[in-house]
Amino acid sequence: MAFLHRLSKASSVAGARLIRRLSNVPENTVYGGPKPQTSNQRTTLNQLRQKYKKGEPITVVTAYDYPSAVHLDTAGIDICLVGDSASMVVHGHDTTLPISLDEMLVHCRAVARGATRPLLVGDLPFGTYETSTSQAVDTAVRVLKEGGMDAIKLEGGSPSRITAAKAIVEAGIAVIGHVGLTPQAISVLGGFRPQGRNVASAVKVVETAMALQEVGCFSVVLECVPAPVAAAATSALQIPTIGIGAGPFCSGQKMIVTSLRPPIGLMNEFVSCHRREKLRFMQYQVLVYHDLLGMLQHPHHAKVTPKFCKQYAQVGDVINKALLEYKEEVTNGTFPGPSHTPYKMNPKDENAFTKELQKMGLDAAASAATEAAAELEKTNTQQ
Amino acid sequence: MAFLTKLSKTSSLTRACLSRCMSHVPENTVYSGPTPQTHDQRVTLNQLKQKYKKGEPITVVTAYDYPSAVHLDIAGIDICLVGDSASMVVHGHDTTLPISLEEMLVHCRAVARGAKRPLLVGDLPFGTYETSTSQAVDTAVKVLKEGAMDAIKLEGGSPARITAAKAIVEAGIAVIGHVGLTPQAISVLGGFRPQGKNVSSAIKVVETAMALQEVGCFSVVLECVPAPVAAAATSALQIPTIGIGAGPFCSGQVLVYHDLLGMLQHPHHAKVTPKFCKQYARVGDVINKALSEYKEEVSNGSFPGPSHSPYKMNGSDVDGFYKELEKMGLNKAASAATAAAEKMSTAQGPVAEKSQK
């Protein structure tokens, strides 16, 4: 009791320091991490639906680890997608195919630890849901159970994919569909090629998006299709579409003002469109974290950013500059200076230490220690 | 043959487009990554030894994935350490204990893909080398075999750890030792507390460093010890010491990537950077600003603009698409498509036609 009493009497700073030294529990460690003031602030499907109905924007960005998840949370991004694009931007492969489910789950867990507010969506990686419907359900279950996600996304619009999506929804797992360019299918597509550029392909995009809505998807990603195709799909659906490389789409009202005089037969349609809320036609956007941040942009090794992606920063340049400066300062000995050399021995211990070293026959080490202490003392007093 | 002749006659730009269209092999994909001009530029143990002999400081930074590895390579950092600090800075745990060997191997492979020049060192994570000497050798072998690393680092200076280090070196695997504050031992240490602050602890740091050298380590990391202790150890050894929070008298320095870049520094959620770490940038602020701007532009509809909406349909296809949609009874969608096409072409003008592949 006396100890606690003394503890409370000590200044709050000293008290805090004591407590910090006495334990390694999370709140006293260095990396406790930012904690939200209120819990249960997670974005819900219902909130997204309300936003869609009211025509309010929804933002989606990919994340793959704790720090990027924290950044998305801090910036107020609505949906955090743990994409299988990790295979390319984190693991350095040329396609999204090599990443395994276990690796995706590691990414999911790290993101779940960091993003407490955005809705968390995990991608089903290539090869984990195509074999059978039951395999698809198993994988989706793992992504929620072991990955800590709130929903999953899977690619494709073939009948078996749509059946799989249906089974997953029936298992109680929210699903985002993905049509257009589906990167897991580059073998069949012959590369990262935009889709929907001819009539048959364009119609297929719209049809498959509608089929996915039919089986219960709450949203559909449209990737790398021409803007009119994305516009048609967005218009045909009653769930939000999320575009990447699929154009800007316009709101219902704007479209009416700028469009040509429609044929008489469609006049009724246009009138009803005009009355509808602006954002029933709005399409949302998703971008890959590393691309939007210019993570790997460097003049010497310019990485090719997809042409539909805008770089909102040149983080790669900032990182390069910082690393070069660190290297410079270590090489010329300015780092670490006194302000980054915080740990001290008191002089009595220093002397005893030197004597011990001499006893061990390490005379050079003993004098090195003495010189170091003296030099530090000198630079400290100089400051 | 006629096709090939025609191919050679077309402009180089068209040819490049053609070959890009026709395959998705690595050199034609978006993400092939920077490839070094010359191979075998990997930093070797011998080169490090030369640096040490000449008194040139050795730079070490941690990396955990492909992009960070590329950054270290471009900046010319000597050693790239795939640290178990990943547990904290990548996975968001409060300590380095939770990360598994499988997870570390994933990090190692990603880094190996990105860093072609620095020496690659992989940490042995908590629980994968303490049970027995054979477990230690197995783990070290996996880190090199499956993780593609060049060397390993393990923590600690107890007799069992030194025996393990010896066995690993005898297996032909280069080892970096680690004494002072060893984060995997916070249970016993009672937290992330600097070591070597009293005489016996300080002597122990020097002795264990020497023992690790004795069994064949090519370097020793000194973490969070007073500068005189680090100076003594550095002087007593004939191999380079790499310091972190150990003052300026070591043969080299190491810092954690995220700490030195201020990755998680944001005024609202200021993360505590270790006091020995200098922040050379505030990447967290840059990222926050960029994400906020992206959010703003999506919200007000300015992104994507015409320059970021590259994929086109030609006019006749748009008409055909319109008709098909009408046939399907999707009149609303049909008009949406037409209006979008209209808006895109007015926004871009004649440039639209040229950019079609």
TrEMBL record, chain A:
Keyword list, A-Z:
Pantothenate biosynthesis, Transferase
Q: Does the keyword Metal-binding apply?
A: no
Please indicate which superkingdom the organism of origin belongs to: Eukaryota
What pathway does the UniProt record associate with this protein? Cofactor biosynthesis; (R)-pantothenate biosynthesis; (R)-pantoate from 3-methyl-2-oxobutanoate: step 1/2
User: Record's InterPro entries?
Assistant: Pantoate_hydroxy_MeTrfase (IPR003700), Pyrv/PenolPyrv_kinase-like_dom (IPR015813), Pyrv_kinase-like_dom_sf (IPR040442)
Listed under catalytic activity are:
(6R)-5,10-methylene-5,6,7,8-tetrahydrofolate + 3-methyl-2-oxobutanoate + H2O = 2-dehydropantoate + (6S)-5,6,7,8-tetrahydrofolate
| Enzyme Commission number | 2.1.2.11
**Task performed by this protein:** Catalyzes the reversible reaction in which hydroxymethyl group from 5,10-methylenetetrahydrofolate is transferred onto alpha-ketoisovalerate to form ketopantoate.
Family, according to the entry, reads as follows:
Belongs to the PanB family.
**Name used for this protein in its record:** 3-methyl-2-oxobutanoate hydroxymethyltransferase
UniProtKB/TrEMBL annotation, chain B:
Family membership? Belongs to the PanB family.
| Statement: the UniProt record of this protein carries the keyword Transferase | yes
Q: Which InterPro entries match?
A: Pantoate_hydroxy_MeTrfase, Pyrv/PenolPyrv_kinase-like_dom, Pyrv_kinase-like_dom_sf
Q: Does the keyword Nucleotide-binding apply?
A: no
Give the Pfam families listed for this entry. Pantoate_transf (PF02548)
Pathway-wise, it operates in: Cofactor biosynthesis; (R)-pantothenate biosynthesis; (R)-pantoate from 3-methyl-2-oxobutanoate: step 1/2
What catalytic reaction does the record list? (6R)-5,10-methylene-5,6,7,8-tetrahydrofolate + 3-methyl-2-oxobutanoate + H2O = 2-dehydropantoate + (6S)-5,6,7,8-tetrahydrofolate
EC identifiers of the protein = 2.1.2.11
Q: What is the recorded name of this protein?
A: 3-methyl-2-oxobutanoate hydroxymethyltransferase
> What does this protein's UniProt record list under function?
Catalyzes the reversible reaction in which hydroxymethyl group from 5,10-methylenetetrahydrofolate is transferred onto alpha-ketoisovalerate to form ketopantoate.
Gene3D superfamilies cross-referenced by the UniProt entry? Phosphoenolpyruvate-binding domains
Report keywords, A-Z: Pantothenate biosynthesis, Transferase
